[in-house]
Amino acid sequence: DADGDLVGNTAKAACLCAKNSIFPVTKSGDCNDADPTVKPGNPEVCDGKDNDCDGVTDNQNAIGCNTYYLDQDGDGYGDLATLPLCFCSANGSYKVLLGGDCDDKNDKIHPGVPELCDGVDNDCDGTVDPPGSQGCHNYYPDVDNDGYGDLYATTWQCQCGPLYPNTSTQAMAKDCNDKNPLVSPGAFEICGDKIDNNCNGQTDEPTTNAMFYVDIDGDGYGTGAGASLCKPGTITGDPCVPGSPGCYSATVIGDCNDALKDVHPSAQEICNGIDDDCNGKTDEQLPSVMCGDATNGVAACIGGKCIPQCYPSWFDADGIASNGCECKADNFYGVLGASCVAPVDLGYLYDDGSVTIIKTGNIMPPENLIAPAGGDWFHFKAVDASDATGSCDPFNVHVWLADNPDGMFTIDLYKGSCGSTAQLCGNESDTGWTVSFSGKPPYGPQTVKGSTSGDYDPSPIPENGGECNCVNVPPATPGTKPAGLPGMNYCTDNSDDFYVRVGRYPGSGTICQNYTLNITNGK
């Protein structure tokens, strides 16, 4: 232990029974036995020595170290976002003693550089493009936000862009009253208010007069010669109520009908028989523009009204143009059933009651005429089959509307032909023809099932109709009972052609819903 620091030189040792002046200590590890400040356990000091004998000279955080910042862009300022380290001297990228660099990848950005108008915080002071930055322009206050600033205000600043209240450039700083948004070089002079509204140094100058016209309907367009006035009013300049006679309130002329507010040069032409836009033409726009699309047809303006031209078999039943042609005709339309001459033939209908003929359809406007010109016509042959003696004749033609949506569909019934003398009934919803219950001659229209007449032998089942009881041998005297057979009636063969017309009650109009017609014989 040459330096007497109580830690011996590892390279010089001897095994002794006791220490002596040459080998006085038993602890080794001194890496410099000539310097008592160097030995294990000593604090590291920035002095160029390995003070603690750990093999490293001037360690990080040694006594006397300096704070160094990471400087990647080499601009002399360390990265603000990276923690600094304490070294005895510069160490790699930790080489500068000044921090504060807010962008360590750009050597043009760091504390101390001039601020530029570039949208960047050049000097890293936390402010982007502050007033006074290089490249700034003078902006003047525009307190009333009318687009014009006050050139003589003392609060102007050199800014990179508008920043309220300094939002006006020098070229626009010509406002003569920055507290009134209605006053500026771009404002109109208002006559009679004793204010220089347009900042031209004059008040209520004569050039503010304009031509005004009478506008009775108040649509903004006038008529007549007009009057040169400072503001709307009478010809003497007195105030008046717009729309009243003698009140000049419109600044635009050209109204071709000053009694209608919706008629003027900028109006939209509509289908109404009027020159809405005052161009000298009436209803000249495309029908599709004036009337809209016509569903199942083509839009048309006829006589000042939107009337859709329907495709074949489609009809505008409700007369509302906006929904076009909303009704589809039935399958009979234009084919059969338009008259008694060409009815829909339903074939034979026997009186055993086993068949119910069911037909559905509708009546469109061309069909909705007074009988016999219109409607849906049907024909069938009602067959009265032969009946055995002692039986009942069930011949009973029954025609009724099982479905009559609005109650305005009607039935006309004809027997034998479709002439006017053959018509049994008209404008009914439930009708028919049956044989006499009592042996008398067949009677005409029956609208109440089960009716009986006469004083002979009524049917045991009157709701089924028919002659009971009957024989197929005619009586000696017509209209009486057969001789020798008390209580018996003659079963006449009542087979015949029947015609049914389904129409609409006069004046009831047209609907899109279908009727349902039922026909039976013998029920």
Q: How far is it from the N-terminal to the C-terminal residue, by CA?
A: 144 Å
Instruction: Give the amount of beta strand, in percent.
Output: 25-35%
Helix and strand content put the structural class at mainly beta
Outline? elongated
User: In which range does the helix fraction lie?
Assistant: under 10%
Number of helices: 1
Oligomer: single chain
Integer average pLDDT: 84
Uncertain stretches of 5 or more adjacent residues: 437-459, 461-465
Rg, please?
Answer: 58 Å
Query: What characterizes the major β-sheet?
Result: 5 strands, mixed
| Sheet with most strands: strand arrangement | 19-21-29-24-25
Number of strands: 30
Sequence-ordered SSE layout with sheet pairings:
Elements: E1 8-9, E2 28-30, E3 66-70, E4 85-87, E5 94-96, E6 137-141, E7 157-159, E8 166-169, E9 210-214, E10 221-229, E11 248-250, E12 252-253, H1 287-291, E13 297-298, E14 301-302, E15 305-306, E16 309-310, E17 314-315, E18 327-328, E19 344-350, E20 357-361, E21 376-383, E22 391-393, E23 396-403, E24 409-415, E25 423-428, E26 430-434, E27 467-471, E28 489-490, E29 496-504, E30 515-521
Parallel strand pairs: 1-2, 10-12, 19-21, 27-28
Antiparallel strand pairs: 3-4, 3-5, 6-7, 6-8, 9-10, 9-11, 13-16, 14-15, 17-18, 20-30, 21-29, 22-27, 23-26, 23-30, 24-25, 24-29
